[in-house]
Amino acid sequence: MSDLVDSKTHLRQQVKAMDDTIGTSVVGLHPAESEVRMTLHGFINIAAVAELHTAAVAALHTGKDVTVGCGEAEYLDLAAFQVLWALRCAVEDRGKRFALADLPTRVGDYLKFAGLDALAPAATNPCAV
Questions:
Q1: Tens digits of residue pLDDT in 80-129
Q2: Burial of 67 from C-beta contacts in 10 A (0-12 / 13-18 / 19+)
Q3: DSSP H/E element including 77
Q4: What is the mean pLDDT of residues 46-73?
């Protein structure tokens, strides 16, 4: 019974954290000379994926290498991973480098669970199908 109570409490905390994210910026875009760095913050779910997509398109149009910092990301859902996958493929198709940096263990574990290990930093050639 205690595990069930703990699970419900944890779920309520996650829902509140996601509600708190609505209306706040979850993506930062930081262009530098040789690359552009996107930083992800908080919960990035379907409600925030439009902002992620807009930043991804802006990063792609710089024509530079792209690094996505995930150290402050608490949660990324499948829609966010789809945007990151498409960004990676588009960046690499243009001959540039894409990297995920500071990937929290829980996010890396979710990538593996979802079968998207290729997005993880150690993976190679993720766009070959």
A1: 989 999 999 999 999 999 998 888 887 777 777 777 776 665 544 444 43
A2: buried
A3: none
A4: 93
Which of 24-33, 50-59, 115-124 is most confident?
50-59
Torsion sign, CA atoms 68, 81, 126, 72: positive
Task: Express as a percent the part of the chain with pLDDT over 70.
Answer: 72
Domains and CATH numbers, the chain: 23-119 (3.30.750.24)
Whole-model pTM? 0.72
The answer to whether 21 touches 47, Cβ cutoff 8 Å, is yes
Region of residue 16 (phi > 0: left; psi between -120 and 50: alpha; otherwise: beta): alpha
Cβ count within 10 A of residue 66: 24
Cα angle: 16, vertex 20, 21; to 5 degrees: 120
Residue count (the chain): 129
Query: Position of tokens 């995920």?
Result: 100
Whole-angstrom CA distances from 50 to 69, 81, 88, 97, 125 are 18, 13, 17, 23, 26
